[in-house]
Amino acid sequence: MRQLIIRNLLKNFILRINHLYFIAISVFITLPKMSKPTIGQLEREITHRIRSLYTKQLGHRPGKIICQFFDTELAISIENSVSVPEQTLVKAGYEILAEQVRLDLNKIIAPQIKDLIEEIIKKAVVDLLSNTNLITGRTGIIVFLEALPEVRNRESIPKANCKIVQE
User: Fold this and answer.
1) DSSP state letters, 1-38
2) What integer pLDDT is reported at residue 30 of this predicted model?
3) 64, 75, 96, 148: which could join 79 in a potential S-S bond, CB 3.0 to 4.6 Å?
4) Which long-range contacts (CB under 8 A, 24 or more apart) does 82-90 make?
């Protein structure tokens, strides 16, 4: 008898969960599509994801990151981007070794930055240039894009050749 009661309770519970799951899916499907992001939202998302990438891949949290679109280019400035081992090599007089370590790290990180930018802006990256100054600890990245990302406020992109598009 007890087993029958428990079985019925479980069956009712599963039916309720399935019903709620169905409601959640139907609500999700019927929600209107989100509008295009602003250029500022894209810049903040890129900044956040680059910080996360540096922390995850290098075990080093960089300082201030500035991300700014200019027409089909994207400029990224990263403060305090040099890891502790690189700093230690420089302080010990092994600048050439530290530079080689940084070059190798950039070879690893640059494709990941390219991929995350393409994922965020939904446009192809044509080229990515990166350089780090081991003395100042700054990294500069210039990203060349195939086209401007689709945004709500295209006119706020400096130097953008904005054309009015009829939608």
Assistant:
1) -HHHHHHHHHHHHHHHHHHHHHHHHHHHHHSPPPPPPP
2) 43
3) 64
4) 82/132, 82/134, 82/137, 83/58, 83/59, 84/60, 86/134, 87/134, 87/137, 90/134, 90/135
- Residues sharing a CB contact under 8 Å with residue 95, sequence separation 6 or more, in sequence order: 89, 134
Confidence class of residue 91 from pLDDT cuts 50, 70 and 90?
very high
Strand-strand pairing, 138-145 and 125-133 = antiparallel
Beta strands in 54-137 (DSSP E): 65-70, 73-78, 125-133
Give whichever of 11-15, 67-71, 156-160 has the largest mean pLDDT: 67-71
